[in-house]
Design a protein that fits this description.
This is Rieske domain-containing protein. By secondary structure, this protein is of the alpha/beta class. The chain folds into 3 domains: about 140 residues, Rieske Iron-sulfur Protein (3-layer Sandwich), CATH 2.102.10; about 170 residues, FAD/NAD(P)-binding domain (3-Layer(bba) Sandwich); about 120 residues, FAD/NAD(P)-binding domain (3-Layer(bba) Sandwich). The strands form 9 sheets. Strands 15-14-13-19-32 form a 5-stranded parallel β-sheet. The radius of gyration is 25 Å and the shape is globular.
């Protein structure tokens, strides 16, 4: 594959704020025993972890010096299946999570590698702890990541027992995450994996292949011009966020593990017989195995006036940047839809502008009723109302009006009622991007690409994941297609 054009890559910064500190279980100061002999590695050697690649600032090296033992004063009081947070150093966040599983005591990093939530406030089941924020899961034995939406594991620290007391060996500088061991490309391995789509499913697939010791070629074709970013923040940080800070991986990380990300490349066809992907620029990419993870696009309702200036859909980082700019100059903002996108958008606008702008929400039911029922939806409605938004429940938008210059200035409900609007944001769900798979002749089902339980399509060399995959749900026995960030990550893995 010859990359003939230069692509734009957005820089990445770490914007994950550490959650509010939890109180240590015991107020007894940590008992620190300095190591005087040759020190063992502070992180347990597990198959899920590996020393870092030094040039990657996302990598976390397993410390081999400046370590010490700290007595876990209350560890012998732990019952089976219990956990606690223990302070092990002078720093505010120098803590470990201690858990007991099958009679053994384990210690891992105390904070989730995703958004920094204290894991002690989560749930422990079997040998896994679930984060209280977004249910990312980690092994208490190794610190390895078990469930999305996290990207990395947390450090694991050896625990020893002496004279009836437990001690944990920790570095003086506590790290926040642990990168899983990954293979690199072996030129002798000619197997080529191509991934169409550079989002949650596509990135996770590429990383999981390397974590599984796949040494063949990995090519990712992404239509977007930005490195993979956390799409969930588009609505959560709509009015002030900067998508260039939300990258899930930096280009240097991907290069280190020979994951070839090609930005700004649109796949327009798949030739199953020759096993080639046709690109919009006329070039082709051959494959041995192919994953289609093209996601979805924001659904555009056929409402008159939907194409006026200052009427936006929200799906990409470019959409968010345009809305952010328009919102700064708008006085009356109308949000259409009360699902996740609509509700988070209204909440963010309320928080950002706090009464300085008129925020309206138009919805055909109480917010989030589709997902959580009327009672929970009524709670969301109350919160929006309390924070100053005007919510029009059980209403449909029938028309968007404009001024003499082609810009929106009003929206019209089916009752004929008009709402002034300088900016309209439409959150009407998504449409799965199945056209590529459909044109290739793959079997379709439930508005998606039909797969078996292993996400394999009707062509054994082609797989589908994320928003487009329709798979047999073992819980219900029926075909399921899930439009959700975490589901896409899990399927990609």
């Amino acid at each position: 594959f010859n990359q003939s054009k230069k692509v734009e890559e957005l820089p990445s910064e770490d914007t994950k704020d550490v959650a509010q500190e939890s109180q240590p279980v015991s107020q007894t100061p940590p008992v620190i025993v300095e190591k005087k002999e040759e020190a063992p590695a502070a992180i347990s050697p597990a198959k899920d972890t590996a020393p870092a690649v030094k040039e990657q600032k996302e990598e976390v090296a397993a410390p081999t010096a400046d370590i010490h033992d700290v007595e876990l004063t209350d560890a012998n009081k732990l019952e089976e299946g219990e956990m606690m947070e223990v302070k092990v150093g002078a720093g505010k966040q120098d803590k470990v999570l201690v858990a007991k599983f099958k009679g053994e005591v384990y210690a891992i990093g105390a904070y989730c590698s995703h958004f920094g939530a204290p894991l002690a406030k989560g749930v422990l089941f079997d040998d896994k702890v679930m984060c209280p924020y977004h249910a990312a899961g980690f092994s208490v034995k190794t610190g390895a990541l078990e469930f999305a939406p996290g990207r990395d594991g947390v450090p694991s620290y050896p625990v020893t027992q002496k004279d009836g007391k437990y001690f944990v060996t920790v570095p003086k500088k506590m790290e926040k995450k642990q990168i899983a061991k990954m293979a690199k490309r072996d030129p002798e391995n000619k197997t080529k994996m191509v991934i169409i789509g550079g989002g949650a499913a596509g990135l996770n697939c590429a990383e999981t292949l390397r974590q599984s010791d796949f040494t063949g070629e990995i090519v990712v074709l992404s239509e977007e011009k930005a490195l993979p970013y956390d799409r969930t923040l588009l609505s959560k940080q709509l009015a002030k966020g900067n998508a260039s800070k939300w990258s899930l991986r930096e280009s240097g990380f991907l290069d280190s593990y020979d994951i070839d990300y090609h930005l700004g490349y649109k796949a327009v066809g798949i030739d199953k017989a020759s096993q080639q992907v046709q690109l919009a620029d006329g070039s082709t990419v051959s494959y041995d195995k192919l994953l289609i993870a093209t996601g979805g696009r924001a659904f555009k309702p056929p409402t008159p006036g939907i194409d006026l200036d200052n009427v936006f859909l929200l799906r990409t980082s470019e959409d968010q940047a345009n809305i952010k700019k328009a919102a700064a100059n708008a006085k009356n903002i109308v949000v259409v839809g009360a699902g996740f996108i609509g509700s988070e958008t209204v909440a963010n606008l309320q928080k950002t502008y706090s009464g300085k702008k008129n925020v309206h929400m138009v919805c055909d039911a109480v917010p989030m009723e589709k997902y959580f029922g009327y009672d929970v939806g009524a709670m969301f409605l109350h919160e929006h109302d309390k924070n100053g938004a005007k919510v029009y429940v059980n209403h449909d938008l029938t028309k968007i009006k404009y001024d003499g210059e082609g810009k929106v200035n009003k929206v019209v409900l089916e009752s004929g009622y008009e709402i002034p609007a300088d900016l309209v944001i439409v959150g009407a769900g998504i449409a799965p991007n199945v056209e590529l798979a459909e044109s290739a002749g793959l079997t379709m089902e439930a508005r998606g690409v039909k797969t078996n339980p292993f996400l394999q399509t009707s062509d054994p060399n082609i797989f589908a994941a994320g928003d487009i995959a329709s798979f047999p749900n073992w819980h219900t026995g029926s075909t399921t297609r899930i439009e959700h960030w975490i589901a896409a990550q899990d399927q990609g893995s």
